[in-house]
Amino acid sequence: MFKNLLTVSGWTMLSRLLGLVRDQLLAAFLGAGSLQDAYQVAFRLPNMFRRLFGEGAFNAAFVPLFTLTLDKKNINEAKKFANESFNILIFILLIFTLLGEIFMPQLLHIIAPGFTTDKNRYHEAIILSRITFPYMILICGAALLAGVLNSLHHFSIAAAAYVSFNIFGIAALLWLTPFMPNAAWAAAWGVTISGVAQFGILWLAARKAGVTILFHRPKLSPSIKKLFRKMTPGIIGSGITQINLTIDTIIATLLPTGSVSVMYFADRINQLPLGVLGAAAGTTLLPLLTKELNTGNKEAALSIQNKTLDYCLLLTLPAAFGLFTLAPLIISTLFGHGAFNLDAVYKSAQSLRTYTVGLPAFILIKVLSPGFFARGDTSTPVKIGIFTLLLNFILNLIFMYPLAHMGPPLASSIAAIANVGALAFILWKKDAFYLPVSIIKRIIYMIVAAFIMSLSIFLTEMIFFQNIIKNPILFRIIDLSILVLTGGLVYGGILHILDIIDLNSTCLKVRQRILKR
């Protein structure tokens, strides 16, 4: 399991790093103004439906059923189920895409009401949204294929395919921009083209793995009806999550111009550990838990869940504390160039700090949710989701004016903390979650080590690197590298002293892996 987690994390890390390059180009070309706001809303639209129909509810229902069909029946029945699921999914998404293209102006009135006061930003958002919307069909089809590959334990290629999104995004900004009205158009076309690439890569990989997906007329077979029954509560749950995100977007569009942009770039940094660890944990954990529970091995399932939680917190806690401490320097180093000015840097750093408050909770949601899905329980997360939706909405209204661009991130963080608390409590009540004393002590030691690490970074910055965000970019890169290295050494050293990790053994394993490759 740990090997699979590292494999997915490695590819996701590469994708996130390339994503940072893409975001640096977006910041340099578009800054944090009305055109950037319009592009970000246009990109969120297909992402919203992707998470609703693709990676969220659909995969949560599809992967356990596909795995069960594979284990209890045979590969041919699993192939048939995969093909039926694919075609019904594409048919539904095609209808949504056509409706979205036709009624895009009305849709933007709902999710970006603040844009209607700025005609240029509103019309740009309509055009860009119509360019990016077909990405929804492609990426949802790719998500199904990735679910097939993950169920067959082909984790590497499924994770690697998503790297192409950022590769095509970078290429579009660099090479398409001169032929487009502006860089936002080039970025939007890069999104849709990358969807074609991702789908193609995963389709070929699934075919090589023995599962060929073909287009045919969709039909409601008994298996598909069962999939819909399992999927419906998940869609409601995912819908609640998307409503949360939509609320954040609505609030952001009502704030001063550029708020959508500064929050986006802050979230991109926050998504680096969240995507690398959270997505990897969720991807690898669900099929493993499903397999153990199908064989009746509840103790093994609980052990796998606890180990994943421990691995994730070991890396998430220093990331959260470190991002909070270094937020201005990180934003300045990565995005503080071109059209992205110093005011945008400070505002984005403030948003990042409020996002990091909930970072561990966001990742733990990814760890605990499979505990419900693997047991066929998709209704409980829905009930929790309704609670967090109301909480997020109330907090957004409270924080909207006094905190401005920091309000939606803080509301989301607090709602995530409440979400993970509810998930853990209900799993515990169902005897599906239990932390032994040894893991609780490890978590406490990790928190202490992360706090001391953060304090050491802060003191080092205050003593040796004052006003560094105004330095030339090369000096910022050097200073940031020194501070990150200092924090890493302090955190690793404290955990070694507390006997949480064995640095000698870890270094030896890393060296052996490098030599092997």
From TrEMBL:
It is a multi-pass membrane protein. One of its GO terms (cellular component) is plasma membrane. Its main location: membrane. Pathway: Cell wall biogenesis; peptidoglycan biosynthesis. CDD domains: MATE_MurJ_like. Coiled coil: none annotated. One of its GO terms (biological process) is regulation of cell shape. It is found in: Cell inner membrane; Cell membrane. It comes from the Bacteria. GO terms for molecular function: lipid-linked peptidoglycan transporter activity. Involved in peptidoglycan biosynthesis. Transports lipid-linked peptidoglycan precursors from the inner to the outer leaflet of the cytoplasmic membrane. This is Probable lipid II flippase MurJ. It comes from Commensalibacter melissae. The lineage of its organism: Bacteria, Pseudomonadati, Pseudomonadota, Alphaproteobacteria, Acetobacterales. The gene is mviN.
